[in-house]
Amino acid sequence: MDHSIKKTGRPPYGMLAVLMVGAFIAFLNNTLLNIALPSIMADLKVEASTVQWLTTGFMLVNGILIPATAFLIEKYSVRRLFLAAMLLFTIGTLVAGIAHTFPLLLAGRMLQASGSAVMMPLLMNVMLVSFPVEKRGAAMGVFGLILMAAPAIGPTLSGWIIEHYDWRMLFHFVTPIAIIVLLLGFFLLKDKKEKVDIHLDIFSLLLSSIGFGGILYGFSSAGSKGWDSPLVYGTIAIGVISLVWFILRQLKLERPMLNFGIFKYPMFALSSSITMVVNMAMFAGMLLIPIYVQTIRGISPMDAGLMMLPGALLMAVMSPITGKLFDKFGGRILAVTGLIIMTVTTYYFSQLTEETTYTYLVILNSVRMFGMSMVMMPVSTNGLNQLPTRFYPHGTAMNNTLNQVAGAIGTALLVTVMSTRTETHATSLAADAMKHATGQPTEAAIAEMQQQIAMKAMLEGINDAFLVATFIAAVAVILALFIKRAKQAEDPLQKKSTDEKIAAKLVEN
Q: Where is the Major facilitator superfamily (MFS) profile domain (predicted)?
């Protein structure tokens, strides 16, 4: 694939356009579903712990399949991979749209996930190969603009559809677009791939699936089941053991499924660490703001979606600007500035009250998103820039996998902090209320007091979770100080080949 793209001498804009539309639909579909979960619970009569599998299951399939994408990208052409991924995604969307039972809906989501797992690493790899290092920031910025538009319009569009139609309309809305993109890919993608004699190591795939799957499942389940559940710590332990075994096996294989040798390139290793930490902190906003807005403040899903819209739009608009600034100034100044903004605004989110205004929330979230727009794409692009071309599939697969794991860990950590601190605050507030109580309160007064204590305790729990996220973001600021502008490292195989040619010429002379 790499060679077929490079031979043209100019970036394959037609191919990139088709890939980006496919990735946009996959991203949009994911952001549409979050606001629909309460409606699905009511319609299919399932509990919150069951319905969360629509997001947890999606994450699990991604975590299992993404590590294999490095092998798939090396083995097959862009055309074959894109059509297979888009077909799976389209079938999954159709199944989910007609689902009248939860298992069928979950099966549809799993099929969607198996398609979208391939889409992102494939697109990232084509972009890395298509653009030289000095123009890569601007290209990634346009890519960011298109993908950030999905979370910008997703919650608002979802809120409007849920208020006016059945939740299945979310899937019916995506289905015709997915079919059109599939047909566009079939007729417009023409790249060929020379036959590559590499084979998938099945045992590596099994270890990777158990490793990443176990860790993702364990951390994702911790929020609902608690850390003392054998299912939680058992699956995490099995996942860690399998993952260590998987890494050791990859280091011994001549053609590893996922090459961990890429971590010897310092800027890539640093960028991976920063994006993992940022992902953990980022989930604070994605998870805690909707809980605060809808549960404590009683704001409708539509208004909650609209509240997030300006920040998401600002992030989308900033993406191409940030890309050009990255090409000019490098990643460090952008990342440090963006992370400081993100850390400060996350701290202000830890000071929420029952009287915090809607306008204040909109502005604070927008400034936070502005800071975030300076971080993710420049940092990951800078790290990938240091890798030799041969390692691009492994770099993109590794980044996407680690982001999934970081997201699961961040979510579990923040939910745990929120839950435990809410219980602590509830006990403290109840004791304080009993101390100051006068006379014998009525049952209605007791019920009202308990409700007030529960809301106040949850608010304080959310604030404490945001405070933890502030410290996590501060760690990313410190790491970002060590960023340097990356130059593409020499491929050890090419260097060996060059050295052998030089040695052969010396022998001839």
A: 15-488
DSSP letter for each residue of 163-201: HHS-TTHHHHHHHHHHHHHHHHHHHH-------------
Helices in 45-190 by DSSP H: which ranges? 48-51, 53-65, 69-75, 78-98, 102-130, 136-164, 169-188
Contact predicate 211/267, CB 8 Å: no
Tell me the longest C-alpha to C-alpha distance in the chain.
Answer: 107
Alpha-carbon distance of 63 to 236, in angstroms, equals: 14
Cα-flanking dihedrals φ and ψ of residue 100, to 5°? -120, 5
Confidence (pTM)? 0.78
Distances (CA, A) of 29 to 128, 174, 178, 285: 25, 7, 10, 20
Handedness of CA 155, 157, 158, 163 (dihedral sign): positive
In the prediction, which pLDDT does 403 show? 82
Nearest-CA neighbor of 349 among 226, 234, 465? 465
What confidence score (pLDDT) does residue 8 get? 46
Question: For 437, phi and psi rounded to 5 degrees?
Answer: -70, 140
Q: Are 1 and 191 in contact (CB under 8 A)?
A: yes
Helix 443-480 vs helix 332-349: crossing angle, to nearest 10: 170
* Residue 509 confidence class, pLDDT cut points 50, 70, 90: low
Predicted confidence (pLDDT) per residue in 95-148, tens digit: 999 999 999 999 999 999 899 888 888 887 887 777 777 777 777 777 777 766
Exposed/middle/buried for residue 318 (C-beta within 10 Å: 0-12, 13-18, 19+): buried
Element (H, E) at 419: helix 392-436
Query: What whole-number distance in Å separates Cα of residue 155 and Cα of residue 385?
Result: 33
Supply the Cα-derived Rg of the chain in whole angstroms.
24
- Tokens 């980044």 correspond to what residue? 399
Joined tokens for residue 363: 């502005």
What length does the chain have?
509
Residues 6+ apart with CB under 8 A from 175: 90, 93, 94, 97
Residues 6+ apart with CB under 8 A from 25: 89, 174, 177, 178, 181
The span from the CA of 369 to the CA of 39, in Å, is: 28
Q: pLDDT tens across 209-226, in order?
A: 899 888 888 887 776 677
Closest CA relative to residue 9, chosen from 165, 153, 132? 132
